[in-house]
Amino acid sequence: MSAPLRLVGDVGGTHARFARVGTDGQLGAPVRLPSSEFGDLASAVRRALELLARGDPASAAGAEAAIAVAGPVTGDRVELTNVAWRFSIEESRVRLGFARLEVVNDIAALAWALPVLGRRETRTLAEGARGASGVRTVAAVGTGLGVATLVEAGGGEAVLPSEGGHRDLAASGAREWQVVEWLAARFGGHVSAERVLSGPGLATLHAALAALDGAGPALPAEQVGPRALAGEPRAREAMTLFAGWLGAFAGDLALTVGARGGVYLAGGVLPALGAAFDTAAFLERFLAKGRFRGWLSEVPVRLVLDGQAALRGLVRRLPAGS
């Protein structure tokens, strides 16, 4: 008799990944599906289970699943931010025949993973104070910009999801003000940090610079980094602005939540940019908070390299296997 299914999944604006979890808590090989090919969670999970079975079926009876989604989870009805999925958690559980289905925000899942990410799964951008501990926060740059915070207190842990990526984009200096004004005219007034600090945001930022300079064409997002490395001036400026704005955002975040335990940068964009990411510009703006520069200099900053970090966080949400 096969063991009851234990499943984790991470649904983003572009792709959805699912993996089975062994009784030892280890992740199996994940499968990846295009999010846009499905209209709701249950449909995607069913397809993933077909691909994951491969001669090793698991029973839905007693099945437990923890799924992360790219959007706020405030009740039973869930609507994703950057993909057209709307579903009820309970209705999805019944359709799938699962005993338990937990759905959480995708950046919250990343925050749950922070205690189990070692040096090999991260790259240190700023060492901070030796032995720094306490509140940790994560900003994930992907299809959007997500934020969540892990708080350890009283021998337990709690994760605070948020929609911090939709806070106002703050300008510093004349060029940034020009960009923000151009974005405000294009997007109807409110300019969120996510408009720039995301994969699509790289293309939007380059388009803003091209328009302000009366030159074109604007580059697609995937070309901004390579063109910057090749020395193309507008792409280099876009990358410097991007890194500086992300540093300012991360510094504000650390101050807001008191993240003495560290700021973690996650998502697929920064690892894909590689050497094109201007680490120096990021760190200078991260620290540039006046009297609190010294406070921030003690905060570790790490880049998450583990592409399965959210899935690892979700494993921690499942009861231990038996």
Total number of helices:
11
pLDDT averaged over residues? 91
Following the backbone from N to C, one meets helices and strands in this order, namely EEEHEEEHEHEEEEHHHHEHHHEH
From the alpha-carbon coordinates, what is the Rg to the nearest angstrom? 20 Å
Q: What is the helix content?
A: 25-40%
Strand order of the largest sheet: 8-13-12-9-10-11
Are there runs of 5+ residues with pLDDT below 50, and where? Answer: none
In CATH, the topology of the largest domain is named: Hexokinase, domain 1
Structural category:
alpha/beta
Task: Tell me how many strands there are.
Answer: 13
Summarize the main sheet: 6 strands, mixed
Morphology: globular
Q: End-to-end span in angstroms?
A: 14 Å
Describe what this molecule looks like in 3D.
This protein folds into two domains: 4-106 and 308-315, 2-Layer Sandwich (Nucleotidyltransferase, domain 5); 118-305, Hexokinase, domain 1, CATH 3.40.367.20. The relative contact order is 0.16. The protein is an alpha/beta fold and 322 residues long. The protein has a six-stranded mixed beta sheet, sandwiched between helices. Strands 3-2-1-4-7 form a five-stranded mixed beta sheet, with helices on both faces. The protein contains eleven helices and 13 strands. It is globular and about 60 Å long. β10 and β11 (156-162) form a beta hairpin. The mean pLDDT is 91.
